[in-house]
Amino acid sequence: SVQIEDDRTGLSIETLKRAFLDNLFYIQGKFPALASKNDYYMALAYTVRDRLLRRWLNTAETYTNTQARTVCYLSAEFLMGPHLGNNLINLGIYDQINQAMTELGLDLNELLQQEEEPGLGNGGLGRLAACYLDSLATLEIPALGYGIRYEFGIFDQEIRDGWQVEITDKWLRYGNPWEIARPDWAVEVKYGGHTESFIDEHGNYRVRWVPFKVVKGLPYDTPILGYKVNTANTLRLWSAEATESFDFGAFNSGDYFGAVHQKSNSENISKVLYPNDEQYQGKVLRLEQQMFFVSCSLQDMIRILQMQNMSLEKFPEKFSVQLNDTHPAIAVAELMRLLMDEHGMQWDNAWNITTRTFGYTNHTLLPEALERWPLKLFSELLPRHIEIIYEINRRFLDDVRIKFPDDPGRLSRLSLIDESGEKYVRMANLACVGSSAINGVAALHSELVKQTVLKDFYDMYPEKFTNVTNGVTPRRFVVLSNPRMTSLITSKIGDNWIKHLDELRRIEQFADDPGFRYEFRQIKQAIKQDLANHIKSETDVEVDPSSLFDIQVKRIHEYKRQHLNALHIIHLYNRIKANPSAEITPRTFLFGGKAAPGYYMAKLIIKFINSIGEVVNRDPDVAGRLKVVFLKDYNVKFAQRVYPAADLSEQISTAGKEASGTGNMKFSMNGALTIGTLDGANVEIREEVGAENFFLFGLTTEEVAAKKAAGYRPIDYYESNNDLRQVIDRIASGFFSHGDTGLFRPLVDNLLHKDEYLLLADYQSYIDCQEQVSQAYRNWDHWTRMSILNTARMGKFSSDRSIRDYCQNIWKVQPVPIELKD
Ligand code: 26V
Question: What's the CA gap between 788 and 782, in Å, rounded?
Answer without folding.
Answer: 10
